[in-house]
């Protein structure tokens, strides 16, 4: 049965028809969209680890699921990069079958509790919900996804999926971010012995070293990793492929296929004067040290500069995570400096709203041009160029243009540069024969295959900085393509 037939069959199930008819569309659409319960801003800025969004209660989830009209043509699904069967899992929630809802999510998404928290749903599935055409708020698909996945974890119903018998073949994975984890899970299901090599001492990629716990708790990621362990996947941490292990070493170890999900962990800088002063650092350094090395703790042996007046340069999710972390580490003034207006900010709307509630200042239409130092070589202030919006540029966003002579000096003692990332060059440089783009990304075909026949790649190393769901989707696609390739060889 293909996907469309399965979706139709599910929609035509007797219970589903009965449920659909139990309330009119008018009644359903009269229900107001649920509000995500969250910790009070004055309390939450005291904790780096307590999750801000506390999750829907069962009553809230049941009511929100009731809003969904179970459309014959569910346009929401068109907005989901991995094609989650959205109305099917939502209707399982409406009838109180939470474990079944989670099972449906897992058919297409290997990390539903993660995606339910961090996906930009407002630009994906929810942006396509039919409610928009009625001038109403969309169904809270992301909150419901998180609800079902959390229910499964908390109630201990996360099951090891059906695994095919071992086929005697070994495959290696470089990197344990969402791309690598989803590839590993799918290959384990297909009967392969899977070993994931990770450069850091922790497994999870950006999910652990980048996104802070107050947004994505480690226990959520660890539950997924534990499931992979139970499926037989093994992990080798502190192993840098391209340095500790070469391409030849991996073949000598008996691996017949290799998936590269090494991400984009190389920070970009602006190249302006003063960027090398003490107190100026990248978001990557700042977040990794706080999240993985406990550098925000009072008794840390390698503490990070806490800063009383902290400026974060950029307007993406990484910038929001950094500025909200700075607030939690006691900054009296925590600022976002962004050269466009708020409308153009790439960060999720929820993250921007949360940052504002937590007292973050937004200096939009400002661009740093220089950092000035005190007598000890430490940053003391930044010179900001005021901007205005001009014509749209190649990205379709209105281009920021400098207002001549409009420069102001703002005192700062920490600057965190968060203007994007580039692919880690290690694997692209170490594997001879890989086709690498001018931006340093690995070039793949529509099956995520590289120019080396046994090497596949996906996630940020292919896309540059993208999203968790796209990385996860790449890992899954690469698994199915590599399986096809290796099956043909034997
Ligand atoms: P990564 O998650 O980067 O994982 C790559 C892994 O490979 C890392 O663990 C790295 O240590 C390892 N590695 C690298 N080189 C080697 C090597 N040579 N040998 C062995 N291991 C290696 N996306 C969203 O959808 N929503 C969000 O809210 C969001 N917020 C974000 C916040 C921050 C702070 C950051 C940095 C990113 C955010 N993103 C968000 C983007 C998202 O996290 C990434 O697109 C996604 O994690 C990419 O997954 P990946 O598996 O390709 O790479
Ligand atoms: Fe439900 Fe909205 Fe999807 Fe229709 S478009 S099935 S109302 S979530």
UniProtKB/TrEMBL annotation:
NCBIfam families for this protein: gltA (TIGR01316)
Domain annotation FAD/NAD(P)-binding: ranges: 169-475
Gene Ontology MF: a single term: iron-sulfur cluster binding
Species of origin: Porphyromonas gingivicanis
Lineage: Bacteria, Pseudomonadati, Bacteroidota, Bacteroidia, Bacteroidales
Dihydroprymidine dehydrogenase domain sequence ranges: 49-155
PANTHER family for the chain: GLUTAMATE SYNTHASE [NADPH] SMALL CHAIN, GLUTAMATE SYNTHASE [NADPH] SMALL CHAIN-RELATED
Cross-referenced InterPro entries: DPD_II, FAD/NAD-bd_sf, FAD/NAD-binding_dom, Helical_ferredxn, SudA-like
Pfam families: Fer4_20, Pyr_redox_2
Name recorded for this polypeptide: Dihydropyrimidine dehydrogenase
């Amino acid at each position: 049965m293909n996907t469309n037939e399965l979706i139709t069959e599910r929609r035509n199930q007797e219970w589903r028809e009965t449920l659909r008819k139990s309330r009119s569309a008018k009644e359903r659409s009269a229900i107001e969209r649920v509000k995500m319960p969250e910790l009070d801003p004055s309390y939450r800025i005291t904790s780096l680890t307590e999750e801000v969004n506390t999750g829907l209660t069962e009553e809230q989830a049941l009511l929100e699921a009731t809003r969904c009209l179970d459309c014959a043509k569910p346009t929401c699904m068109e907005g989901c990069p991995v094609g989650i069967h959205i109305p099917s899992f939502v209707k399982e929630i409406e009838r109180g079958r939470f474990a079944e809802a989670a099972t449906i999510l897992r058919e297409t998404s290997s990390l539903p509790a993660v995606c339910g928290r961090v996906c930009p749903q407002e630009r994906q599935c929810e942006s396509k919900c039919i409610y928009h055409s009625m001038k109403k708020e969309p169904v809270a698909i992301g909150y419901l996804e998180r609800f079902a996945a959390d229910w499964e974890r908390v109630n201990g119903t996360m099951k090891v999926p059906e695994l095919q018998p071992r086929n005697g073949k070994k495959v290696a994975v470089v990197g344990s971010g969402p791309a690598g984890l989803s590839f590993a899970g799918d290959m384990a299901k297909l009967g392969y012995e899977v070993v994931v090599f990770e450069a850091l001492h922790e497994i999870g990629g950006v999910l652990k070293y980048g996104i802070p716990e107050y947004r994505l708790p480690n226990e959520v990621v660890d539950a997924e990793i534990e499931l992979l362990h139970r499926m037989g996947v093994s992990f080798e941490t502190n192993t840098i492929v391209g340095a500790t292990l070469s391409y030849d070493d991996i073949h000598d170890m008996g691996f017949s296929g290799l998936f590269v999900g090494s991400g984009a962990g190389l920070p970009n800088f602006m190249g302006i004067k003063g960027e090398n002063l003490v107190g100026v650092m990248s978001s990557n350094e700042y977040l990794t040290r706080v999240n993985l090395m406990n550098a925000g703790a009072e008794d840390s042996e390698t503490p990070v500069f806490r800063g009383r007046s902290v400026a974060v340069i950029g307007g993406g999710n990484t910038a929001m995570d950094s500025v909200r972390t700075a607030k939690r580490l006691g900054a009296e003034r925590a600022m976002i400096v962004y050269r466009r207006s708020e409308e153009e900010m790439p960060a999720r709307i929820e993250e921007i709203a949360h940052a504002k509630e937590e007292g973050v200042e937004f200096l939009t239409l400002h661009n740093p041009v220089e950092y000035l130092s005190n007598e000890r070589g430490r940053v003391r202030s930044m010179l900001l160029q005021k901007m205005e919006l001009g014509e749209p540029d190649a990205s379709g966003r209105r281009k920021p243009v400098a207002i001549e002579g409009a420069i102001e000096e703002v005192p700062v003692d920490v600057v965190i540069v968060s203007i994007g990332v580039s692919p880690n060059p290690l694997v692209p440089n170490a594997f001879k024969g890989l086709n690498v783009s001018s931006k340093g990304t690995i070039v793949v075909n529509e099956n995520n295959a590289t120019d080396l026949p046994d090497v596949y790649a996906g996630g940020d190393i292919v896309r540059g900085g993208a999203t968790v769901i796209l990385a996860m989707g790449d890992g899954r696609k690469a698994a199915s393509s590599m399986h096809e390739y290796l099956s043909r060889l034997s």
